[in-house]
Amino acid sequence: MHKTIDFDYFNTQLVHNVGSRTGAIAPAIIPSAAFGYQNAEEAEGIFSATVQKPLYARVGNPTNAKLEGIVADFEGGLGAIATSSGMGAIAMVCTAFLSAGDELLCIGGFFGGTYSLVNETLARFGVSNTFCTVDDFAHIEATLQRGVKMVIFESVGNPSLTLPDIQRIIDLCNQYDTVVMIDNTPTPLLVRPLTMGADIVIHSSTKNMSGHSSALGGIAVFRAVKEEGDKLHTDKYADLHKIVNKMGKKAFIAICKKRAMRDYGMTANAFGAFLTMVGLETLSLRVERVNQSVATVASLLEASFPKGCTVNHPSLTSSPDHARYISDFAQGCGPLLTIDCGSKARAFSFLNALKLVIQTANIGDNRSLALHMTSTIYADFDTQAREFLGVHEGLIRVSIGLEDPKTIAEDFLQASQSL
Ligand SMILES: *Cc1c(COP(=O)(O)O)cnc(C)c1O
User: Fold this and answer.
1) Distance, CA 204 to ligand 1 centroid (Å)?
2) Which CATH architecture has domain 7-30+61-280?
């Protein structure tokens, strides 16, 4: 059972964390690529992290730092790193922790970009992987026992909408001293994995966090490393001990900056970080609204869709994930629902009959969006991979926005008349 989210608490926290009480209310955009040092001693101190001042914009800037503090605060983390995109955040964490010969455990179906990062790119660099379905705990535990280096999973399957037992997976990872990263993109505020014992949370801030589709961005948030008995002190993470010993509780941040961001440069830019903060002011308000609307739209569609057209959302009693929705996601599991029209041709007629809903590859926008899956994001995937990811020929992914939920449902219902 997850804690009940007090959206009003987050409304107050977010507007005051984003805006300043004195001087300029809006966050400052500091686009400088480089930062002058007062003297040689200060330069030395900045490079050895004993002086907390900007070094060079590839490893962070003051605007990003403001965004990082806000997100770390609402996720319950020690600190964060803002990146150029959500994939940038995932790639940063994976390449910082994994080396050739390591194994990665992936639980559940994945967003297409993460799936190809793991199966194609990381595989090319010698990182092997094992995939388990979210409830296959025998397989999950056997894989952890074998000594995998890292575990990744999504708070809510996109687009499968499977809901994992987040607490149980985190507890198992902790039992086997394995670093666990959760992609929390669809469920900011609703799920707070760091408060449940996770090590790392990432978001594509392009999506729900911004809401306005004006800024590509990502962020990774980290817990504090314990002084004694931390999983990072075990032999499995011997290659990180030098950084862990030097940086103490901030080691997760230093590991990602020194072992990935410095060398790959997946850094957020100041203007993007500013735009993300503009979105964050209203995050709690939007999350509460959208999650109520998704359930409303899902039930209106289920009641009136013609035969051969089905809607899936865990709030519906017809969903295989309904029990977990009630126990763990009672305030919502994000903006997505799916519609299955049975075939690609029917899905295309349905989509082309939509008047309000926009066809695009994004999710978590303030506007409602829809996309056919197998002809777009999953076009390159073979049948077996599509099956594992729960992507069928007639499947349309829908992301619900801020419009009137009855108006959204009416658009889908009038489109279903064209079938
Ligand atoms: C969009 C998305 C990503 C990737 O984020 P980008 O900002 O597009 O790079 C990762 N995970 C999930 C769940 C997403 O929806």
Assistant:
1) 5
2) 3-Layer(aba) Sandwich (3.40)
